[in-house]
Q: What sequence folds into this?
């Protein structure tokens, strides 16, 4: 799995194969866990590669996505319903049979993201854009 952080305000970009995305979804459903990332030779387009993703169950309401820059960690903290909803979105991307991506961004009234959460793009295991 590769996670890029864009400190210019763009948020984070998550990509990986189907197994890696499912492992992230399982950590989210479990409300705790750590998923290691791998460095890539691919261009980062100004992003900073993060070393891992940590999931922490918290009281909520909702899910907060933030980056611990010093540790190079994507932190996802939230209540069980919110983490489960995010896991469903990640699992959906893992199951895609073509390229594509999903933007997960806070807006007032978002059903699981908390205010102040970073935007996150989750890419299909087949790349960020459809081939067909």
A:
């Amino acid at each position: 799995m590769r996670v890029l952080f864009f400190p210019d305000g763009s948020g984070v970009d998550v990509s990986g194969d189907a197994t890696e995305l499912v492992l992230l979804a399982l950590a989210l459903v479990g409300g705790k866990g750590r998923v290691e990332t791998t460095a890539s030779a691919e261009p980062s387009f100004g992003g900073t590669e993060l070393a891992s993703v940590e999931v922490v169950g918290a009281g909520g309401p909702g899910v907060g996505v933030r980056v611990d820059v010093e540790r190079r960690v994507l932190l996802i903290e939230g209540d069980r319903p919110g983490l489960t909803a995010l896991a469903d979105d990640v699992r959906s991307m893992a199951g895609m049979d073509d390229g594509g991506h999903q933007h997960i961004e806070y807006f007032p009234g978002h059903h699981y993201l908390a205010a102040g959460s970073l935007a996150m793009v989750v890419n299909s295991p087949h790349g960020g854009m459809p081939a067909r």
About this structure: The longest strand covers residues 52-57.
